[in-house]
């Protein structure tokens, strides 16, 4: 599978993607654990069918110390016992924030309240930004058909530091 276009080969998309990567660096400095951020991004990648995102965030989660069992079970987190109540609340927020068009309510009051129980305002804001940004990334990758399989951990961090 070959990508339809290399977004880094054109000046305007390159400028946007570099700014996108730099914005993501702020999320790296948040108080949310890296493993949680990676699991959420993995779940959004799964929902949106982004091979590159599933590849990248599986590998980044493992590099951050996440266990293979939890990485494997993120796709079935509701039917799993390996996630904390806080993680479950964040996963629900990520799913509803990704599937906005599937329900009339977008993110339900119940899901928001569950997340509010576990996260402060800065962390909730970080979750909202993280979910929005990974949704944008998955959509770009799916549109241009960027394939998964060759991602190396640390690549995203290096791109944001340029």
Automatic annotation (TrEMBL):
Top-rank taxon, per record: Bacteria
Pfam families attached to this UniProt entry: CMD
Gene3D superfamilies named among the record's database cross-references: AhpD-like
Domain Carboxymuconolactone decarboxylase-like positions: 16-96
Record-level Gene Ontology MF annotations: peroxiredoxin activity
Protein name: Alkyl hydroperoxide reductase AhpD
Organism of derivation: Actinocatenispora sera
Lineage: Bacteria, Bacillati, Actinomycetota, Actinomycetes, Micromonosporales
């Amino acid at each position: 599978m070959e990508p339809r276009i290399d977004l880094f080969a054109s000046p305007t998309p390159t400028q946007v993607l570099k700014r996108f990567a730099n914005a993501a660096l702020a999320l790296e400095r948040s108080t949310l654990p890296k493993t949680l951020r990676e699991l959420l991004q993995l779940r959004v990648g799964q929902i949106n069918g982004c091979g590159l995102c599933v590849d990248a965030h599986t590998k980044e989660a493992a590099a951050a110390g996440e266990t293979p069992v939890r990485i494997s079970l993120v796709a079935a987190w509701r039917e799993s016992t390996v996630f904390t109540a806080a993680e479950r609340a964040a996963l629900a927020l990520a799913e509803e924030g990704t599937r906005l068009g599937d329900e009339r309510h977008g993110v339900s009051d119940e899901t928001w309240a569950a997340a509010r129980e576990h996260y402060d305002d800065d962390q909730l804001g970080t979750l909202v930004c993280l979910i929005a940004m990974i949704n944008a990334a998955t959509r770009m990758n799916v549109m241009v058909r960027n394939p998964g399989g060759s991602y190396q951990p640390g690549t995203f961090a290096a791109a944001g530091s340029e």
